[in-house]
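Handout, tutorial session.
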Amino acid sequence: MVNGRSSIDLRIVGAQGGDEERHCANAESLALEAATIRQQCKVLHLPAVAAQCAQLADQATRERRTHLGYLEALLQAELEEREQRLVERRIREARLPRMKTLEDFDFARNPKVSAQQIHELARGDYIARTEPVIFLGDSGTGKTHLLTGLAVAACRQKRRVRFASAAALVNEMVEAKLQLQLGHALARWARYDLIALDEVGYMPLAEIGAEFLFQVIAERAGKAAVIVTTNLPFSEWTQVIPNARLCKALIDRITDRANIIETGTESYRFRRTLEKRKSKNPDAKS
């Protein structure tokens, strides 16, 4: 007995101390391994593996998965994150004015628009078939929302998409011509899987502007898809494109094999505003 403590007590204390030392050593080793893995993943550009390797390792241990099973889970996590980042990048590059999806569109408020037809288009077969989509209707009938929703659906399919109003597209082409970069600008627009042109017909176009619009659309005919919104029936397009021959040629290109969807004349945006006003003041006269 030493200082009132038996040799057995001392052996127990010594064993406990050894366990603590081994535990600390193991913790330091694991921390070093984790730091090394993070650094290696950074070099290899594998952020999901770095973030999830420890969690998935614990899960693999609990579920008694094989080493290959653990590796498969890691690679699947990396693939899923890469796909998500690609979709997010496609949406940013599309330059959509607002993030509107087809899930947010209220088909009950606009019965003229077929939900089935829109959801079929959202699958993207029209892009593969290089078919134009035209939304024709008055202001407030959901044209831009539907166009944006289809653009987002295409981005989710990892397709390259670009949105612009007709006026913005024309201005970009005019600026490119002034900078002697028109060929590059036209080639850039031709590379997109889908372009979404909003508000065709809202503003009169000078002849040079109409020519640029025709060039962009004609270049895609039979090669790549385009979505257009317009508030004018085709018979009135000469109001914004005075050159009758050019106007006819543009309509011929854009309507060939097109999916033409009429959104009607009643503004559900205006109706929604009235309903909100009534809900705030139910005694107000209609």
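The second record follows below. Compare its token runs with those of the first.
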Amino acid sequence: MPHANLPQANASGWICSFILMGFTSASCWLQGSRFVKILVCMKQVPQKDAPLKLNEAGTWIREDVSYEVNEPDAFALEEALRQKEKHTGEVVVVTAGPARASQVLREALAKGADRAIHLEDPAFVGLDAYNTARAIAAAIIAEQNRGEKFDLIFTGLQSDDYGYAQTGVILAQILGLPHATIIMQIEKTDSGIRVKRELEAGFFQFVDLPLPAVLTIQSGINKLRYATLIGIKQAKTKPMRKVTLGEVQSAIGGNLQKIEKLYVPQKSKNTEFLEGPPAEVAKKLVEKLKNELRVI
């Protein structure tokens, strides 16, 4: 169901000031204009087939791996571009991470995004979902102070590395916006949008939402496009605004989630012979399959 809870009056000042500055006012998309402005949150993650090695502390992987765009975020970008092509408008992409994460933004610009925002600092990699959402929210507030108003904010359903599936819904809570998750279809209506949510066992749910709103996009909602040669060339000239850690530091607190230890499962082999009459061996085998291996 769409989320409608607003931050309380005693919430941190930057949340309240954002709402008071008009983000909850009627979207320009609803005021007779076909122009739609969409913000897409993206993340750079390790490649799926990259050989992973743990850092010395055993709390995360080493940095010397290959990276790629988080797959659900790629589908979120594609859906944003399709909505832009259908209604005209602007697509803005944002990411948080070290300098290498700018590659994610360049790829998005090459595919058709209009401009980018990079929260650039290696420290962003270590943030949990809550603080990542707070940092992105602070950057959105800065855009709001510049007169920007987004009709829709897209995130991927989850990241391929942590897999928390929390950043999008926490972002909606912080901004006081309605949200819906696992989105498979988006249609504009007179009062806002109607979205199709994927549920379990092949079921779907249709939800009507006012604008502005936050949506977490499911992989497979569309077919991804490739960047064209001209798009790659144009991406070099499109604006990318950098946001330092210091600019959003006041919005970030201590992590509420922490990975204590990662480990690679140890491979081992153990051969056990079951001896005795056939009936007794069969009984022992069934007991092991049932009680030790739990396959029956």
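Points raised in discussion: Helices lie at 13-23, 71-87, 102-111, 129-145, 167-175, 229-235, 245-248, 278-292.
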